[in-house]
Amino acid sequence: MIVSARKIFEKLMKQVATFILIALLTVPHSLAQQDFSALKFEILEIEDAVNNADFIFAHEKALPLANAGHPQARFILGTLYQNGWGVSQNFPAAIDWYIKAGEAGSGNGAYNAAVLTLEGRNEDASLERAITLFKMGAALDHALSYYTLGIIYAGGNGVDADQKLSFDYFFKAGNLGHPTAMYNVARHFISGIAVAQDYAKAREWLAASVTYHHHPSQFEFAKMHLNGLGGAADPVEGYKWLLLAQDNDQDAYIDTVNETGATLSTEQKEAARQAAFEFLSTYPKQAR
After folding, report:
1. Architecture field, domain 5-175
2. What's the pLDDT at 172?
């Protein structure tokens, strides 16, 4: 069955927090193919212009640097054309500049080109073309590109499902700090899909992802502690993670919190609350 890229995009958006990267000051400067370090201040000036809505100035300054091969200048031009900032909105031009940014070493550029292609923003848009661009981003060690490829191959979204390949992509994204990818790796170890079942390894991955306040990870971590999976059972630690998951998404976990709390003593619940408070002090939400 042939499935349009647009339908695949709509399905994927229900599974992956895919977004276009436009916060210029948070975008790392890729200098993969040439040394543009001498242009650092020029790029910062252009980024400041974009953040201050001086888009015409930004376009004028970025264009010669982009033509010279600077990845961040190319990324900025992609952002301007995508949003119609200082120029007429032009998605094919945006994709072209993002691809050129990727070719110069910008994983964010390759990723944005892939997402716009998946949205059908170009005449040659197709799932196959989008996957090629996500793989360009992955080749540049870009976490979101790895993660999105993991989602695509996990669900057979327009391609043959490949759980081992999906796991490998999640594993790489997780090692780069993507919390949902870490969670998905843990789920693989819990279920034994594509890898040997290993609760201890699942705990290790969840222990990393919970620090990002990823509430599905916190809930899964709670269950592992409550049920003694991958380590000793610890009802206080389990209840602590339930409280933290509830703090991040109250409606989803309130029944489990109440049911578990009913099995614990007042002292145990107070110890769990204190431990949850200490976790939030160590890992404040705004810092993650």
Report:
1. Alpha Horseshoe (1.25)
2. 98
Rounded to whole angstroms, the Cα distance separating 67 from 70 reads 7
Report residue 14's pLDDT band, with 50, 70 and 90 as the boundaries. Answer: low
Give the pLDDT score at 108.
97
CA distance 120 to 118: 5
The dihedral built from the CA positions of residue 51, 57, 63 and 65, taken in this order, carries a sign that is negative
CA-closest candidate to residue 22, choices 66, 65, 75, 99: 75
For the chain, how are helix, strand and coil distributed in percent, rounded to 5? 70, 0, 30
Helices 55-67 + 71-83 axis angle, to 10: 140
CA angle 236, 255, 11 (to 5 degrees): 110
Q: How far apart are CA 27 and CA 279, in angstroms?
A: 29
Q: Would you place residue 123 in the very low, low, confident or very high pLDDT band (cuts 50, 70, 90)?
A: confident
Task: Measure the CA–CA gap between 269 and 273, rounded to whole angstroms.
Answer: 6
Domain residue spans in the chain?
5-175, 208-287
97-100 long-range contacts (CB < 8 A, ≥24 apart) are 97/66, 98/74, 99/133, 99/136, 100/66, 100/74
pLDDT in tens, 28-79: 444 444 566 768 899 999 999 999 999 999 999 999 999 999 999 999 999 9
| Confidence band, pLDDT 50/70/90 cuts, at residue 13 | low
Dump pLDDT digits (tens) for 173-186.
Answer: 999 999 999 999 99
What was the pLDDT predicted at 12?
Answer: 61
Tokens of 274: 């204190």
